[in-house]
């Protein structure tokens, strides 16, 4: 019997309302016991005094680019970045090549994830075949193959009638839509429509491009009863809409990418194409609204939208591929919000664990006795630099490249096995 005993860490597990110094005993990959002091002579001891201990983080929005674009990332490099960031479960988006619109590709992702054996890699299937927005994918087959949600992420579903049908089917399967909300015709350009786009003469993506789709899909969720999760929300009005429909009882939820909480459109002036992302970095006012959205509980969870691209794809802002890597920077960025007094540690951890688990009805994100022992141990004050030596992704597209970050994962444990250890 394999036993691991984590001693004297400061445990924060929002799923059980636990916050304090506890020992955790892990046996056969599961949480066996949590108590103020545990003695277990047969167990391997991990001294985690001085660190924060929490359920392993869950990221419901990552791009691992596998199959098809493995020069940007693959399931192995992506898994390494994930566990280094404290994530034990990731949901990978189906905008791969081929897309995850068929059971074979879903299987490939699941099997490769298992073979790599670091974090749990769960595929999301597409809403439409080939992500082309014309014909629905076979959700029954995709769910049977292990897809935990449906999304055309990267593109919106423009056809409202098709989206309504998708939702009706998702209700029958008790699944969830992960919704990339941006109207194609309004969001054709590179960065936020605002003073920086005007200054640099760059093409634009307007806030209403996002808000129109958020409104439509909240309405469709309200009418059909389908669980709809709005991805990477960025505007004040979009939040007002989500709040309105939550208040009316629609099963809608939303996520925020930490980059939208730390940066604004002005970051494009400093980081160029590495600050290009969809939806784009917006205004200071918008960022303030997002922070309020977290505090008021309108925003449910964090999601990194880890979107690796190579340097040659990130040269001119106007022509660059959109996206920012985020698996290793999410925790330091969220801790920055904690240090600014925006959120408590408990709230931060809830947004990385319990909330994403609830949105996808996953049995993780908790250290309740008997649950899989997915655990993260981190030092909120340890400083480190994101560079060639510390980065596990194959890509380096982030405004934080080369910067000193505060907050580091010390151990990541998945089902009782140490899958990452800080040097
Ligand atoms: C994502 C990508 O690169 O796949 N890019 C992005 O800017 N967020 C797609 C997406 O999440 O919309
Ligand atoms: Zn997206």
What is this structure's SSE topology?
Layout: E1 3-13, E2 18-27, E3 30-35, E4 44-47, E5 52-55, E6 57-62, H1 75-84, E7 87-92, H2 103-116, E8 120-123, H3 139-144, H4 160-172, E9 176-179, E10 191-192, H5 195-200, E11 204-205, H6 207-224, E12 227-230, H7 236-247, E13 252-256, H8 258-262, H9 267-271, H10 284-295, E14 301-302, H11 330-339, H12 345-352, H13 354-359, E15 375-385, E16 404-414, E17 417-421
Parallel strand pairs: 1-4, 1-5, 6-7, 7-8, 9-12, 10-11, 12-13, 13-14
Antiparallel strand pairs: 1-2, 2-3, 5-15, 15-16, 16-17
Helix pairs in contact: 4-6, 6-7
Zinc ion is lined by residues 153-154, 180, 231-232, 278.
- Strand content is 15-25%
Low-confidence stretches: none
Mean pLDDT figure: 98
Structural class: alpha/beta
**What's the assembly state of these chains?**
single chain
**Global shape:** globular
Q: What hetero molecules are in the model?
A: N-carbamoyl-L-aspartate, zinc ion
Q: What is the terminal-to-terminal distance?
A: 28 Å
Count of DSSP-assigned helices: 13
Specify Rg, calculated over alpha carbons. Answer: 20 Å
Q: In total, how many beta strands?
A: 17
H/E order of the elements?
EEEEEEHEHEHHEEHEHEHEHHHEHHHEEE
Roughly what percent helix?
25-40%
């Amino acid at each position: 019997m394999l036993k691991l005993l984590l001693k004297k860490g400061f445990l924060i597990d929002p799923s059980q309302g636990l916050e304090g110094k506890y020992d955790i005993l892990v046996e056969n990959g599961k949480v066996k016991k949590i108590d103020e002091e545990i003695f277990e002579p047969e167990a391997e001891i991990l001294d985690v005094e001085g660190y924060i201990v929490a359920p392993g983080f869950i990221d419901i929005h990552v791009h691992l680019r596998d199959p098809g674009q493995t020069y940007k990332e693959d399931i192995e490099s992506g898994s390494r970045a994930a566990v280094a960031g404290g994530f034990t479960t990731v949901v990978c988006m189906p905008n791969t090549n081929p897309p995850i619109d068929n059971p074979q590709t879903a299987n490939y992702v699941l099997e490769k994830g298992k073979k790599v054996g670091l974090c749990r890699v769960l595929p999301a299937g597409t809403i439409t075949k080939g992500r082309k927005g014309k014909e629905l994918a076979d959700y029954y087959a995709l769910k049977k193959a292990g897809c935990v949600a449906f999304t055309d992420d990267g593109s919106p579903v423009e056809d409202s009638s098709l989206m309504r049908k998708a939702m009706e089917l998702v209700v029958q399967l008790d699944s969830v839509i992960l919704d990339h909300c941006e109207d194609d015709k309004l969001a054709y350009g590179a960065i936020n429509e605002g003073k920086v786009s005007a200054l640099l003469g760059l093409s634009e993506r307007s806030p209403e491009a996002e808000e129109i789709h958020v409104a439509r899909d909240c309405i469709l969720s309200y009418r059909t009863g389908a669980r709809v999760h709005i991805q990477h929300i960025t505007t004040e009005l979009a939040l007002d809409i989500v709040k309105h429909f939550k208040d009316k009882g629609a099963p809608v939820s939303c996520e925020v990418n930490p980059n939208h909480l730390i940066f604004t459109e002005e970051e494009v002036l400093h980081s160029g194409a590495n600050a290009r992302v969809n939806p784009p970095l917006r205004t200071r006012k918008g960022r303030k609204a997002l922070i309020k959205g977290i505090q008021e509980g309108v925003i449910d969870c964090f999601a990194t939208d880890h979107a690796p691209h190579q340097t040659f794809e990130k040269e001119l802002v106007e022509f660059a591929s959109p996206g920012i890597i985020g698996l290793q920077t999410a925790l330091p960025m969220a801790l920055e919000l904690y240090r600014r007094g925006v959120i408590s540690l408990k709230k931060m951890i809830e947004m990385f664990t319990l909330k994403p688990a609830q949105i996808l009805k996953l049995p993780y994100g908790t250290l309740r006795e008997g649950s899989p022992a997915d655990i993260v141990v981190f030092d909120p004050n340890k400083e480190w630099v994101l560079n060639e030596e510390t980065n596990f992704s194959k890509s380096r597209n982030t405004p934080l490249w080369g910067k000193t970050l505060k907050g580091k994962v010390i151990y990541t444990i998945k089902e009782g096995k140490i899958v990452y250890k800080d040097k």
